[in-house]
């Protein structure tokens, strides 16, 4: 049997198992419960929560992008490791508090959290829209990776549109039927698969190319010493850019609705334990970075289409690896992309329904809301699919802008949790200005002042505006501000 | 393992952070707090 046939059978086999795990997980639980669909009844345990958070972060970017960054940029790729390990730390403190607020007021989204504290409709609608656009961008990236991996591993036999449709169709089916619980359990299966593949295949590639990890580094240091440094002459990234990129990821990470709303799905103890064991997840990325390092000076950048293609390129072209390795890497990359896509599809549908639709039609019964959320899963999926397959430049720029704007939720969230002085108009103005500043420096300006990350520049403006306008405006509900601050 | 300093440095801090959070968790007075879901 040809290598591509083995790979295709393995990848399709993986998809079938992922579908079964996802659909089975949702069985036996109340299909008509809004609480079950949104936060899995609030009772996810440690292992499931760890994989759910880990799987959501361990995306196609980690699987294909991390080796790509290591290959094209060298040491700055270590940022992926750093942020994966550290970005979750604030959750230890804010997670249990958000969870308690959510249970007290029956909240399951970021939009709902902000609405209860700051009042009004503008803020939740704004958050619902930004979350939807940003999620679609995130999903389109995952879907591109899925389509690409199918295409390359079957040597071009499965076209891009079909690969994306096949894998993402399965995600949509299990999320729409089983909600968060289905996403969580399929992430356990997908997470284990990714970890095993990353270590086995990652180290096998390094050993085949250089003999050992040590030798790989000595070869690299000998030929390109500056490649493993940050900020020094010849390095691909300045110290400020590296630091602020990590900083924006640290602040923005928990603001992503699919991670933020996990605070509602578990109790304080599980959240704290998840934070505790979470950094171990980052260690699973190490072999993938090594794969990227191992290709430096071996593979000519002109031969690879884009740096992100380095892992599949090594397997299919440089090394003569058997077909089952194609299949394993294909399944691992699919798992990485799908475990992120399920959580994001779920939360995008929730945020949009709760933030936008429920504020336009406030007296929606629970049953109808649940129906809209399930339908939303299909709509979000279809939108992301259309953008992946036919996406135009202007649309992609808009989505990228929204993607970078998630971090701008931070002043509103932290203000709600720890201050009774921050007001709704201040948060809205800060969010809008922060989003525009970020958008300008990310997509229009060619460089940023002092090489600071665009998101941090937006955040600085955002915070200043929130503080100044809060001092000039009055709190809508003083009691709610006090209550939020005093819980937990 | 023949790792360069930058790689060692990042991995070392991940392990140190893990140990610090572990220590914090052990002394956290609220860690066993039970609440109704």
What does this structure look like?
- The complex is a heterodimer of chains A (488) and B (37).
- Chain A is mainly α.
- Chain A contains 23 helices and no strands.
- Chain A has helices at 3-26, 34-39, 46-57, 60-73, 78-86, 91-105, 110-118, 122-153, 160-210, 213-223, 239-253, 257-260, 268-277, 279-283, 286-295, 310-318, 323-360, 366-390, 393-403, 410-418, 424-444, 454-472, 478-486.
- In chain A, α9 packs across α15, α19 (393-403) packs across α21 (424-444) and α21 (424-444) runs antiparallel to α22.
- The N and C termini of chain A lie far apart (60 Å).
- Chain B has 37 residues and is mostly helical.
- Chain B has one helix and no strands.
- The longest helix of chain B has 23 residues, at 5-27.
- The chains are: A mainly alpha (488), B mainly alpha (37).
- The interface between A and B is medium-sized, with 37 and 26 residues.
Report a brief summary of the structure.
The complex is a heterodimer of chains A (488) and B (37). Chain A is mainly alpha-helical. Chain A has helices spanning 3-26, 34-39, 46-57, 60-73, 78-86, 91-105, 110-118, 122-153, 160-210, 213-223, 239-253, 257-260, 268-277, 279-283, 286-295, 310-318, 323-360, 366-390, 393-403, 410-418, 424-444, 454-472, 478-486.
């Amino acid at each position: 049997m040809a290598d591509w046939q083995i790979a295709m059978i393995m990848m399709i086999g993986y998809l079938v198992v992922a579908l079964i795990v996802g659909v089975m997980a949702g069985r036996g639980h109340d299909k008509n419960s809004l609480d079950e669909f949104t936060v899995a009844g609030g009772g996810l345990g440690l292992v499931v929560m760890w994989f759910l958070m880990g799987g959501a972060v361990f995306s196609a970017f980690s699987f294909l992008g991390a080796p790509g960054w290591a290959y094209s940029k060298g040491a700055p790729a270590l940022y992926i490791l750093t942020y994966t390990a550290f970005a979750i730390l604030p959750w230890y403190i804010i997670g249990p508090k958000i969870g308690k607020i959510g249970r007290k007021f029956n909240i399951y989204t970021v939009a709902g959290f902000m609405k209860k504290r700051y009042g009004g409709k503008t803020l939740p609608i704004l958050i619902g829209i930004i979350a939807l656009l940003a999620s679609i961008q995130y999903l389109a990236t995952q879907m591109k990776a899925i389509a690409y991996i199918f295409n390359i591993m079957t040597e071009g036999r499965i076209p891009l549109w079909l690969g994306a449709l096949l894998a993402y169709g399965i995600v949509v089916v299990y999320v729409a039927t089983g909600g968060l619980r289905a996403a969580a359990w399929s992430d356990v299966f997908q997470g284990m698969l990714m970890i095993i593949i990353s270590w086995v295949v990652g180290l096998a590639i390094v050993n085949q190319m250089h003999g050992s990890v040590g030798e790989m580094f000595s070869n690299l240091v000998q030929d390109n010493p500056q490649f493993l440094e940050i900020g020094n002459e010849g390095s691909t990234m300045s110290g400020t850019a590296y630091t602020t990129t990590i900083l924006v990821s640290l602040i923005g990470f928990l603001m992503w609705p699919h991670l933020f709303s996990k605070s509602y799905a578990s109790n304080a103890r599980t959240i704290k334990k998840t934070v505790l064991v979470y950094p171990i997840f980052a260690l699973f990325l190490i072999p993938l970075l090594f794969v990227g390092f191992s290709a430096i000076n071996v593979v000519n950048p002109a031969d690879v289409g884009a740096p992100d293609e380095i892992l599949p390129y090594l397997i299919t072209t440089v090394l003569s690896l058997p077909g089952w390795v194609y299949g394993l890497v294909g399944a691992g990359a699919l798992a990485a992309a799908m475990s992120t896509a399920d959580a994001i599809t779920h939360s995008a549908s929730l945020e949009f329904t709760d933030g936008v639709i429920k504020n336009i039609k406030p007296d929606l019964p629970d049953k109808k809301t649940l129906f809209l959320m399930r339908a939303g899963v299909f709509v979000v999926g279809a939108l992301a699919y259309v953008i992946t397959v036919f996406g135009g430049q202007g649309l992609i720029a808009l989505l990228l802008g929204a993607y970078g704007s998630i971090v701008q939720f931070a002043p509103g969230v932290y203000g709600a949790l720890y201050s009774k002085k921050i007001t709704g108009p201040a948060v809205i103005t800060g969010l809008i200005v922060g989003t525009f500043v970020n958008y300008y420096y990310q997509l229009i300006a060619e460089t940023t002042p002092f090489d600071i990350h665009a998101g941090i520049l937006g955040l600085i403006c955002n915070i200043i505006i929130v503080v100044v306008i809060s001092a000039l405006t009055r709190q809508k509900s003083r009691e709610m501000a006090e209550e939020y601050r005093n819980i937990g | 393992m023949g790792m360069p300093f930058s790689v060692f440095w990042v991995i070392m801090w991940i392990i140190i952070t893990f140990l610090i959070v572990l220590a914090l968790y052990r002394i956290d007075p609220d860690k066993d707090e039970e609440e109704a879901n």
